[in-house]
Amino acid sequence: MSIYKRHRFSSDVIQFAVWASYKFSLSLRDVEDLLAERGIDVSRESIRSWCRKFGRIYQKRLRSAAEVFGDTWFMDEVFINNKGERHYLWRAVDQDGDVIDVLVQKRRDTKAAKRFFRRLLVSNRQLTPRTIVTDKLGSYRGAHRALTPNSEHDTMQYRNNRSESSHEPTRVRERQMRRFKSRSQAQHFLNVHSAVYNLFNIQRHLCSAALTRLRRDRAFACWREITVG
């Protein structure tokens, strides 16, 4: 059965709206205007429901189609506010800048770190990394000893800049969305956003123009494949 069954708009319209919402720093009203310019009259609430429903489906398909991540993991955590309550956003990226996984939790203790490590191992198909790079937060040491003892743990100053800078796109979207409304909403958005980011992370600053176009074409081809009904 098609995932687009009983939807008034075609799959092309829906997947474009979801792609634009997660790929670019756009509000739902912006996406609504983009579609209106193309003669498609759809409300922002419809776009919101598409992002909630199909974003989750696309994210699972992208995860299944993704290759194994690199063998060096950079981890970091930052705080986010949900209705005045502080939460911590844990994020891990590999040496290519791809987001391995994200997890929103209330704490940053050893128990929370272990939960994040287990999630990372599942995301990487139970393959342990060669090196884990973190800051000097003690929670990482406990999780490392318990779950990835054979991996090198690097806590040298400035080595973790890659993961710290990976939070910048989230901060941009958080400001544009006027903060996340709840923990579950933040987790859902960041799951989909990370999967879309990884697909279109073609590292154009390291590629020639021809290779950039080739990688971008491959990314779009993969997007069309995973959004098929």
Structure description:
This protein has 229 residues and is of the alpha/beta class. The chain contains 9 helices and 5 strands. A 5-stranded mixed sheet has the order 3-2-1-4-5. The longest helix is centred in the first third of the chain and has 22 residues. The chain is globular. The model has no long low-confidence stretch (mean pLDDT 90).
Keywords:
229 residues; alpha/beta; five-stranded mixed beta sheet; 9 helices
Can you tell me the overall shape?
globular
How many helical stretches? 9
Radius of gyration: 19 Å
- Mean pLDDT equals 90
Main pleated-sheet profile: 5 strands, mixed
Low-confidence stretches: none
Q: What percent of residues adopt helix (DSSP H or I)?
A: 40-55%
Order of helices and strands: HHHEEEHEHEHHHH
In percent, how much strand structure appears in the residues? 5-15%
Q: What structural class is derived from the secondary structure elements? A: alpha/beta
Numbering strands along the chain, what is their spatial order in the largest sheet?
3-2-1-4-5
Q: How many β-strand stretches?
A: 5
Spatial separation of the terminal alpha carbons? 8 Å
Write the layout of secondary structure elements.
Elements: H1 11-23, H2 28-37, H3 44-65, E1 72-82, E2 85-94, E3 99-105, H4 110-123, E4 131-133, H5 138-147, E5 152-154, H6 161-165, H7 168-176, H8 183-199, H9 209-226
Parallel strand pairs: 1-4, 4-5
Antiparallel strand pairs: 1-2, 2-3
Helix pairs in contact: 1-2, 1-3, 2-3, 3-8, 4-5
